[in-house]
Amino acid sequence: MSVRLPRNVKLDPDRTGWNFYLCVRKDLRIGKGGEYLALVLQDASGQLAGRVFENVERLKDEFETGEFLRVEGRSGIHNGELQLVITSLRRVHAAQDEAQGFREEDCVPSAPRPIGDMWSELQALVAGVAEGPLRVFLHRLLADHEAALREWPAAQQIHHAYRGGLLEHVLTMARTGTALARIYGAREDVVLAGAIVHDIGKLQELAYDSGAISYTRDGNLVGHIALGLVLVRDTARGIAGFPDDLRAELEHLVLSHHGSRDRGSPVEPKSVEAFILAAVDELDARLHQVRQALQDEGADPAFTPWHKRLGRVLYRGPQDGQG
Amino acid sequence: MSVRLPRNVKLDPDRTGWNFYLCVRKDLRIGKGGEYLALVLQDASGQLAGRVFENVERLKDEFETGEFLRVEGRSGIHNGELQLVITSLRRVHAAQDEAQGFREEDCVPSAPRPIGDMWSELQALVAGVAEGPLRVFLHRLLADHEAALREWPAAQQIHHAYRGGLLEHVLTMARTGTALARIYGAREDVVLAGAIVHDIGKLQELAYDSGAISYTRDGNLVGHIALGLVLVRDTARGIAGFPDDLRAELEHLVLSHHGSRDRGSPVEPKSVEAFILAAVDELDARLHQVRQALQDEGADPAFTPWHKRLGRVLYRGPQDGQG
Amino acid sequence: MSVRLPRNVKLDPDRTGWNFYLCVRKDLRIGKGGEYLALVLQDASGQLAGRVFENVERLKDEFETGEFLRVEGRSGIHNGELQLVITSLRRVHAAQDEAQGFREEDCVPSAPRPIGDMWSELQALVAGVAEGPLRVFLHRLLADHEAALREWPAAQQIHHAYRGGLLEHVLTMARTGTALARIYGAREDVVLAGAIVHDIGKLQELAYDSGAISYTRDGNLVGHIALGLVLVRDTARGIAGFPDDLRAELEHLVLSHHGSRDRGSPVEPKSVEAFILAAVDELDARLHQVRQALQDEGADPAFTPWHKRLGRVLYRGPQDGQG
Amino acid sequence: MSVRLPRNVKLDPDRTGWNFYLCVRKDLRIGKGGEYLALVLQDASGQLAGRVFENVERLKDEFETGEFLRVEGRSGIHNGELQLVITSLRRVHAAQDEAQGFREEDCVPSAPRPIGDMWSELQALVAGVAEGPLRVFLHRLLADHEAALREWPAAQQIHHAYRGGLLEHVLTMARTGTALARIYGAREDVVLAGAIVHDIGKLQELAYDSGAISYTRDGNLVGHIALGLVLVRDTARGIAGFPDDLRAELEHLVLSHHGSRDRGSPVEPKSVEAFILAAVDELDARLHQVRQALQDEGADPAFTPWHKRLGRVLYRGPQDGQG
Amino acid sequence: MSVRLPRNVKLDPDRTGWNFYLCVRKDLRIGKGGEYLALVLQDASGQLAGRVFENVERLKDEFETGEFLRVEGRSGIHNGELQLVITSLRRVHAAQDEAQGFREEDCVPSAPRPIGDMWSELQALVAGVAEGPLRVFLHRLLADHEAALREWPAAQQIHHAYRGGLLEHVLTMARTGTALARIYGAREDVVLAGAIVHDIGKLQELAYDSGAISYTRDGNLVGHIALGLVLVRDTARGIAGFPDDLRAELEHLVLSHHGSRDRGSPVEPKSVEAFILAAVDELDARLHQVRQALQDEGADPAFTPWHKRLGRVLYRGPQDGQG
Amino acid sequence: MSVRLPRNVKLDPDRTGWNFYLCVRKDLRIGKGGEYLALVLQDASGQLAGRVFENVERLKDEFETGEFLRVEGRSGIHNGELQLVITSLRRVHAAQDEAQGFREEDCVPSAPRPIGDMWSELQALVAGVAEGPLRVFLHRLLADHEAALREWPAAQQIHHAYRGGLLEHVLTMARTGTALARIYGAREDVVLAGAIVHDIGKLQELAYDSGAISYTRDGNLVGHIALGLVLVRDTARGIAGFPDDLRAELEHLVLSHHGSRDRGSPVEPKSVEAFILAAVDELDARLHQVRQALQDEGADPAFTPWHKRLGRVLYRGPQDGQG
Questions:
Q1: Secondary-structure percent of chain D, ordered helix, strand, coil, rounded to 5
Q2: CB-CB contact of E134 with A323 (8 Å)
């Protein structure tokens, strides 16, 4: 039997073998030799093009986008891009394939830190909230949405676009936001709450299924800012005697967290806490992009290649250790 | 006894007499001669500065902002502005003063068309909606908010900032929006519904009390776009079996009606009906300003004076009747 | 003999046959096998790439861009795009080919509604203008430019870029503009006139020949807004006693119809009618794009794929018939 | 008899005397002491507020805005501004008052250089144009509009807003534009022609009467860019055999001279000459403002006070003579 | 003898007494009663208008702007503003007046926290820098500029525009910047250095003398960003063997700290540390404005009056203690 | 032996021969047939793709980017682009190959005018400076940087991106700037100095080696505006008694020459000379792009194809010789 192929990010041309992948795209196309299947095969390290030129008629209905596959084939270069020419494939049978080493998480890009650790840290932060109603609110929100909050990405692309990305983003903002609140004498618990609720509408804006991220109908028509508002309103209504001032302020944090109208916030920050929240949200998204860009290798050890979205090259820091 | 003064917009200097006003501002100030009261007295035609220099100690606690007053005094010019130096004032006693001609509506700026007429027309439009759930929704919304919808202004300033202004704005948009929908083959009932719901959040954004318009806490922190969304969501939830697609679309109309993110819409129009709604909203607000500006008299019969907010002079049309 | 091929929008690979086309582009290129002809073949449904690899030397001078051709060949996929590999071609001979079903209009994209109908409706609208000089002006303008006005596209691309597109655009604006004018109590005839004259300069800005649209020298150097101004001025001069106020106002409508300086209007709207005209022009252009985008098929029945120029996906409306 | 007062720019408080002025504004106002006249009195050095408190009834109809007056009175400070309290005034009678030194040009702000000199220089430049049709065109244009071209300001305010200002602006641009054209090997005569025609529409956009500058109806509705286009077109039509390419290019220079659409040019520069023309137009307008601002005295010999429109202070240059 | 007047922020009309002030402006003006002196008298709480109507001739040359004065007079309202009508004044004689309680710092607005404390904290932060050359650099910079760094404001207006304001701003940024660097795993010492150097050019951009803040020639012509660059370059040159990479990076922090070109940074952030520095600089300036605005009292306990520069009202937080 | 190939700009497919080139890029790629070398071969007329498919193993280490090569091969079309399939190559040996006509300057794009001529003209301009310290400064600056100033390009791309481009740009600005200064009565020598120093920082921002242009570390982190400032400061420091006013003004010219903050100038022009300098810099860069675009051939003799960066087509001028 053939050997297991390396992870996508490490795969070279001219390798023969097999591996487990998540199929995130499946198109039937017409080429010179008739119909073929063009697949996108994903593992935790990235994506790979797959091509099925034989037995297309039989294979094309054997699996769907969103399913895990066991794939065998040979890698090569086509039009300058790596692709896997597939000689056989079948759906993964979890029970049987786990013995050969199949694990779902190996097929899905994830946050670098274990999700369980991040979840525990977030729970601990909430447990430390002094104000009763706010602590009840946050516990309720986390309890109601635990399953999704542990899985969801923070975006379809650009930043934190992977499993656990939303939790990672929330947790970093909780840490940076409360650090700034402490220095400025602002209400730390309110900033913490803002970090937790600000993107909560993403749970309804995005659909996330086995690594595939897409926009829902409500995501397109209503958007995460307004969806988050409704989630906050509903959670607050469910708590008897929840202070209305606090409800309004949490809604303000959700609505204003993009910082200005032209970035999509229908109301702009009006409290010290809202200014801090918007600042750490923007910084975290920006630094996530910067860190990804810094991983781009290039000829120059000191600078990255030009990064189109950021509109600049990035500096990796002194190469001789000072500073 | 002295004569009744003319309406504020017609008042000249050096007139002595009395009239009924709504007091919309009351400040106690210190001048060369000690404390005095600086009032803003409103009738349906506009506002007038009032000054109380005598008996300040006694009068200053006799009435509050938001009350109707019977005021007697003499008009004059001070620092180039007309003011009424008040010799006596008291609260209106409705029962007794109606005999002398007091009517609340004479003290509050209002839409030019009678509110009852506008309300009937709107009801008739809703009665003509073919689609059952949508008609139920609109009847429910109007019924739940009838009192406020008949009174509310559409804004604190700039356009439709008077009693019944919101109803007038909604009704004009209903007419223009459905006219355009008919020509473009779009769903007229959806555009009508959009006209009715788009600014419904203003009922919670603004406080309106006897002609005085101010922002509420939720108006400042949440804003009418998000408040309208919650009103739509709650109304839809109250109707058993209300189609979720339609609920999402009504919310989209509320959220997208400013037309773009930089004008405060967190999502941008994504349907033909949403594009039409945003276009007629912008046009109606703009033309309301234009029509007000056209009332500015100036030396030139053909053009208005420079209008700062619009950034131009306006053309009144040919002076010799053609066109 | 081979069969007639389906329309371009319906053509599949691996079909052999013939059809009539308008040649809208002809390039002589050098490939591995030497010179070949790269053609763009147009019918009313769209465009198709054509390739002549044989007898190039003889065929390359047998026809020119802008001529109708009878083409025979076989469809295939090259670099992922459909093309017709041509085995024979010749110029259309109208007399003889009409017998086989040749009609010019089958080779040129056109407005969906028959041009004769649109023209009649426009004439009827003008006949209803009450004001004498304005009616004379509009009749004169339509009479002077009838041939072009019945043919011209409204743009080289983006919206109404086909035969009769300008007339379709003008007529829709006439209907929407006068509907709004009626509701706002503005002068309907002036808005109607604005709809007719606003893009009249396009007749000189664009050259339109058998479906090929290009910019003229004056189109590039002077532009349709200024060219339209000259056409209005000249037409008004030709009418004895034409009111100068009205002439200036028509010019204002032409010059201001883009709505603001940054969209290319050297003067901005200064009358109620000019504001209405600019609003319906923008809305009509926008909705034309929206409707074209809504025809893009995609995987999702509710939403279109991402539309780059509009910067969003578009909603097709509820899939279950409500609303 | 009292003495002649100094020029407005030199007038101090507490001076009694007489002088000749152009009345550029006359308002009847109501003050504590009843009606009075508020005038703006202009001489070549600037403007001065005038007040008539006595004999108002008789004097108010004795003269109109735009007339030259002989005024007698006493200067003083009111609300921190200098004003002339007028004790007597009458219309100037040219014949009789010239003996006392009345000269119209002393009452109207003018370009610093004599108009006759500037006109001669411009004529000489045109005489040097090599290309026949272009020289004929320019001679014709200057001849047709000589009277206005010798008088007109270039703007109502901001830059060159005085008698001869347009001629001064045109002449400077002719010199700078042709200097740059020579260096860049561009067609000098075309740039010269552009300098002469670019603002020719100002003759119809602005009304200029004895120093008072206002916008005409066509100025407001059509604007100088489009009005200039018509003047160029008409002049070209009047010359038999005038090359159409050249006509289009002159129109392009008029239309594109603001440099970009957002500054009001409906077409943007497309030739080397058009780029040069737009650059020298912007620079000349900017430097005119800068030079006026440099005349503002302030406490600091090296820098002017903050200039609001330019958004900066300006540097007068080294104070010790270097550089 | 009369009593000592309260601090400016507490002064009422109709109070007679004396106090010590810094004279920050002195103008000789002409009023109805002849010349008078218009002063601006400053204490630590704010500024007060002073007027000298008597003995002007003698007093006007007895003192200059920038000197401390002992002033006696009576407060009153003029044109709605408080002013002190001065009956006598003289220069402060430090030796003698200290006995009566004169202290310079009572006449100059200062940072709320004692400067000595802030300076010690900054020194301690620098002492904790691990990297040798960077620590030497920072010690050198602080030593070279200690006197100014302890005094300077951070701006002429808008934020931190008082004695010690620059030090306060630097110290807050040092704390927020290093807190964020720690969370993001960035180089804390580099961010600390960035906080210290980023505005160092303000020492040459602004002149600060006894509370009066003005722009220097180099401030106007070169600006604090470029001046800071030169200070960094010179300091680095003075340290033998200073790593050139580190020198370039410190310069980058100075140049990029405004975050983008349109805010005046000639290069934009290119390292994680530079992004953090720009974010905390913007946030600190913004929050300083917010906190000042929150001190504006108004009728509403929950919201401030409209703040023009921030373009919004601000929320003071829940009034009932939750959150 | 084979013949010498024509210059890159004239090369056709299917030509066999040899020539000298500068290798400005060398990549090892993997294709269907294994490894190959993809080169970019440059001569003075432009760049050419080169491919080595044989003897890759041996040849790949025989030369480096930045070396001059003697290359032999056959030209062909691949994917629509011209490339040279290389049959042999070796490093140039200057001594031996000069006999065959090798000249470095034939392999490097250069300014059209000989560098020696430009340098002499610049020296003559400096010799004409009247003011002693300024003349000394400029002589010193040119002497210190002569080698680089004779070679450097003005940019990596867009305009003057070739050998001697900076000198060409400086010289043109010296001519246009002093011409304008003369007309406006500004200090010509200061403008001349501004032209010489404004981009002097490019010598450190860009690395230029045998035709290859790249950004240095200081170019990325500090940028040419700030680097130029340091060069000016250092040069001024080296001249005893150099006037500090003049030093500040030269720095101002460097810092403000982009004209506004959003184009990267940290301070904006504040003197007449700085306004002139910014204007001629922008115009020269723009016209350089325009002239390059005008060289694009296309089907239309009057207009260029669409130029993406300029956002327009360009007009070549009348085709019949008028104007």
A1: 45, 20, 35
A2: yes
Chains D and C touch (3+ CB pairs under 8 A): yes
User: Inter-chain contact D77–E221, Cβ cutoff 8 Å?
Assistant: no
- For A109, list phi and psi in degrees, rounded to 5: -65, 135
The secondary structure element, H or E, covering residue E257 is none
- Of the residues E267, E271, E275, the best mutation for testing chain F's interface (the one with the most F CB atoms within 10 Å of its CB) is E267
Is C252 in the B-facing interface, judged by CB distances under 8 Å? Answer: yes
Contact B283 C180 (CB under 8 A): yes
Distance of CA A64 to the CA centre of its chain: 22
Closest Cα of chain A to E80: distance in Å? 31
CB contact at 8 A, C211 and C108: yes
Contact assessment for residue B306 and residue B315, using Cβ atoms and an 8 Å cutoff:
no
pLDDT digits (tens, 9 = 90+) for C201-236: 999 999 998 777 899 999 999 999 999 999 999 999
CB pairs under 8 A between B and D: 12
Q: Which of E76, E77, E315 sits opposite B220 (nearest CB)?
A: E315
Mark yes or no for CB contact F314/D190 under 8 Å.
no
> Model confidence over E204-246: pLDDT tens digits?
999 998 777 899 999 999 999 999 999 999 999 999 999 999 9
Closest Cβ opposite residue C221 in set D218, D252, D264:
D252
Q: Touching check for E255 and chain F: CB below 8 Å?
A: yes
Q: Are A261 and B264 in contact (CB under 8 A)?
A: yes
Give the mean model confidence (pLDDT) for residues B303-314: 92
The DSSP bridge partners found for residue C31 are: C34
Q: Which of A220, A252, A266 comes nearest B225 by C-beta?
A: A266
- DSSP one-letter code for A260: S
CB–CB of F249 and D323 under 8 A? yes
Buried b (16+ CB within 10 A) or exposed e, F303-315: bbeebeebebbbb
DSSP F38: E
Output the pTM of the full model: 0.88
F221 contacts A315? CB cut-off 8 A: yes
In this structure, what DSSP letter does residue C257 have?
T
Q: pLDDT (tens digit, 9 = 90+) per residue, D95-126?
A: 889 988 898 888 888 888 999 999 999 999 99
Touching partners of B (3+ C-beta pairs < 8 Å): A, C, D, E
The number of C-alpha atoms within 13 Å of D264 and in the hemisphere containing its C-beta is 12
Per the model's pLDDT, the better-predicted residue between C267 and F42 turns out to be: C267
Helix (H) / strand (E) element for A31: namely strand A16-31
In chain B, residues with a C-beta closer than 8 Å to the C-beta of C179 are 176, 179-180, 183
Q: Which of A81-95, C241-255, E232-246, E287-301 has the lowest mean pLDDT?
A: E287-301
Q: ipTM, 2 decimals?
A: 0.86
Please indicate whether, in this complex, the C-beta atoms of F176 and D183 are within 8 angstroms of each other: yes
Q: Which residues of chain D have pLDDT under 50?
A: 321-323
Please state whether at least 3 CB pairs lie below 8 Å between chains B and A. yes
Alpha carbon distances (Å) from A28 to A36, A57, A72, A86: 6, 10, 19, 14
Cα separation, B59 vs B44, whole angstroms:
25
Half-sphere exposure of C285 (CA within 13 A, CB side): 16
Instruction: Quick: pLDDT tens for D18-70.
Output: 999 988 888 888 776 778 899 989 888 888 999 999 888 888 888 888 889 99
Disruptive mutation site among E300, E312, E314, E319 for chain B (greatest number of B CBs within 10 Å): E300
* 3 state DSSP class of F304: coil
- F236 contacts: CB under 8 Å, gap ≥ 6: F137, F242, F246, F247, F250
Who among E30, E31, E220 is closest to D313 (CB)?
Answer: E220
What is the distance between the alpha carbons of residues D248 and C219, in angstroms, rounded to a whole number? Answer: 10
Q: Estimate to the nearest angstrom the gap between the alpha carbon of C286 and the chain centroid.
A: 15
